[in-house]
Design goal:
Length: 116
């Protein structure tokens, strides 16, 4: 049974009752090592509300449930859409160019210079 000294009163925190008993609880350092990131990054995610944690009562210690680790990993593997229009040219190997279009052109700077 999970200890009852875990509290969740503030935004960005989980209620201990909402975390399944089977979930492993990771310390911030353990999670950072596992995710190959820093504790600072995890704290930023927590502060922005993107990462939900549990706080141990009477301490500043935060614990991260396994379900949150799994959610972070699944979101990190989703492809992100391009935030710009890519160049319409093809590279020498036949692959599509993924560089940003130069202003006022349909080509990127590299392909514009190659045409001159």
């Amino acid at each position: 049974m999970r200890p009852q000294h875990i509290v969740a009163e503030r935004a960005g925190m989980l209620n201990h009752a909402s975390v399944p008993e089977t979930d492993k609880l990771w310390s911030m350092q353990e999670a950072a090592d596992y995710l190959r990131t820093s504790r600072t990054t995890l704290h930023r995610l927590k502060d922005s509300g993107e990462l939900h944690t549990l706080q141990v009562a009477g301490t500043r210690k935060r614990l991260i449930p396994q379900s949150e680790i799994d959610r972070l990993l699944s979101e990190a593997t989703k492809p992100r859409p391009l935030r710009y229009e890519p160049c319409i040219a093809l590279n020498k190997d036949g692959s599509e160019c993924r560089n940003r279009m130069a202003s006022g052109s349909e080509l990127c700077g590299s392909h514009l210079r190659a045409r001159v």
